[in-house]
Amino acid sequence: MTGVTADAIPDPSLPDSSLPDSSLPDSNLDEHSPGRPAPTPAATRPRATLVAAGELLRALSAPVRIAIVLQLRDHERCVHELVDALGVTQPLISQHLRVLKSAGVVDGERHGREVVYRLVDEHLSHIVVDAVTHVEEE
Hints:
mainly alpha
């Protein structure tokens, strides 16, 4: 794994094929296609940052949570507005909002009997919009 820092340790859950084969001679690891220059190492991130990013992406991975983020990117909404917009039950919306809130994706503010939810950060909507756009282009 080129460019990995000491604190960016490989994830043991990855298959062994993701790591260089130590039985190959070192010269095989340094070879590139003819005429292709060796890549410059990409910037590395600490393992804790990569783990946190993975947890954030996992929180965004459910279709209902993606739909919630898309709804909240334009305007804050309460639970019943999300239920009406997405056509799913209130308990299901509330469950997904809890996951998004614990991941730091959304924040809720009580207004009387209702809690109004909003995205914590606009960057999060970009992640979801870019993923949806990518799938729609295929």
